[in-house]
Specification:
By secondary structure, the chain is an all-alpha fold. It has 5 helices and no strands.
Length: 82
């Protein structure tokens, strides 16, 4: 796994409890990269560490439009068949 260095003063300035900071950073990065079309839904969800349903909900809460590709449609259809 690769890491991203967050300057200590930036990390300490996050207005969330310390035990939640890494999760918040991962979710915010995942939402931002997905919104900009840099990461697919699946990879952004993986980065966020959330289930499909949880990541869908997070995107909805943030009013982020879905980028729905043919590949994602095929994945969803396969998932629904199980």
């Amino acid at each position: 796994m690769r890491t991203i260095d967050v300057p200590p003063d930036v990390y300490d300035a996050l207005n969330v409890p310390e035990d939640q900071r890494e999760d918040v950073i991962r979710r915010e990065l995942a939402v931002s990269l997905y919104r900009e079309g840099i990461l697919s839904f699946g990879k952004a969800r993986e980065l966020a560490g959330l289930s499909r349903r949880e990541f869908h909900r997070l995107l909805g809460d943030r009013e982020v439009d879905r980028h729905y590709t043919d590949e994602e449609l095929a994945d969803d259809l396969e998932y629904a068949r199980r």
